[in-house]
Design goal:
Radius of gyration: 21 Å
Largest sheet: 3 strands, mixed
Number of domains: 1
Number of helices: 4
Strand order of the largest sheet: 1-2-3
Helix content: 40-55%
Order of helices and strands: HEEHHEH
CATH topology: GMP Synthetase, Chain A, domain 3
CATH architecture: 2-Layer Sandwich
CATH class: Alpha Beta
Strand content: 15-25%
Length: 129
């Protein structure tokens, strides 16, 4: 059952991404949107769709709201591409893992810059007056 759920999550991720990109005509749904993962419930009736959006917090919120309001439309179009007895009800969530990753990278770069400043030039680097 676990493998079936994982395969279904992967398939839904691809299909939903395709439907959102090609069929949703809402100005709040930007091109810089990625479906990062889908988690379908054990009974296959509900699915949480995690999306990553590049933009301001207001853009992200507007995009999630637009996707949620178009969830029925998205489900109908996706159900034409996936054969299931019941197509799951979709709930869209913002996946902020990319933002967290970028913040961590920035902090690590700042720490490295501070270390470099404290250590001064290494013995391999020539000292320039």
């Amino acid at each position: 059952m676990k493998q079936r759920t994982e395969r279904l999550n992967s398939l839904l991720k691809e299909v939903l991404s395709d439907v959102i990109r090609k069929d949703v005509r809402n100005p709040h749904v930007k091109e810089l949107l990625t479906v990062t993962r889908v988690d379908i419930s054990k009974d296959l009736h509900y699915a949480k769709v995690y999306v990553s959006v590049i933009g301001t917090p207001e853009d992200k919120e507007a995009t999630i709201n637009a996707l949620q309001s178009a969830a029925g439309f998205i489900a109908v179009n996706a159900s034409k591409k996936v054969v299931m007895r019941y197509f799951p009800a979709l709930t869209f969530r913002l996946d902020d893992a990319v933002d967290k990753h970028m913040r961590i990278e920035k902090i690590l770069e700042e720490i490295q810059a501070q270390r470099d400043a404290l250590e001064g030039p290494t013995s391999d680097e020539p000292i320039t007056p």
